[in-house]
């Protein structure tokens, strides 16, 4: 592990009041090296420079604690074997950084591309991460399976899609009173307003919006916090491909 990587990780997670031990720092560095090496033969990320990976992938992923008021509050939320699913996880963001930092959490990583899922499984095996499931499937199909439907306390997604579409992907996975938290960049007020009706149709209520700037950058980020208030109608999610082509409105 390079000194620069270690210093930057410590500095940026300190802003989030997250404590990482030496093993966790090594896990992050190994993850970074595997990401860069695999990216040479598979399109995982356009962000490859060490400093940018730390800020725009690792720190951004860990910023989820802001939605709970801080790292200590997030730890308290996790008490009682809370479960998390990361929908459209891609190269493992935010799910794997969250699992490294909060190893007590049970995590499911869902992606529609099998070769990415194999990469994620390889990362979890190499890092010795326990209680992580890497699943290949589309959100629309997986969200109808009994072992996943309304089975998670928390759903997160950094996937690039409008909030209406993302909500239809993610709300089926969450238990009543559970949370869906969407990572967003830039200005989102108009998108948020457009998605309100769809979120209500899917049994959700917007209960919070946390805006922040990524450390060491001028990148604006937001966390949209949606609480599930009732059991979802069996007609959702619609068939694969429809939520993206015809978002609820």
Automatic annotation (TrEMBL):
Where does the protein end up? Cytoplasm
Q: Which domain of life is it from?
A: Bacteria
**Binding of S-adenosyl-L-methionine, residues:** 88, 93, 139-140, 158
- Keyword terms, alphabetized: Cytoplasm, Methyltransferase, rRNA processing, S-adenosyl-L-methionine, Transferase
The EC number on file is 2.1.1.-
What Gene3D superfamilies does the annotation carry?
Vaccinia Virus protein VP39 (3.40.50.150)
Molecular function, one GO term = rRNA (guanine-N7-)-methyltransferase activity
Its GO CC terms are: cytosol
| Entry function | Specifically methylates the N7 position of a guanine in 16S rRNA.
Q: Which PANTHER family match?
A: S-ADENOSYL-L-METHIONINE-DEPENDENT METHYLTRANSFERASES SUPERFAMILY PROTEIN
What protein name does the entry list? Ribosomal RNA small subunit methyltransferase G
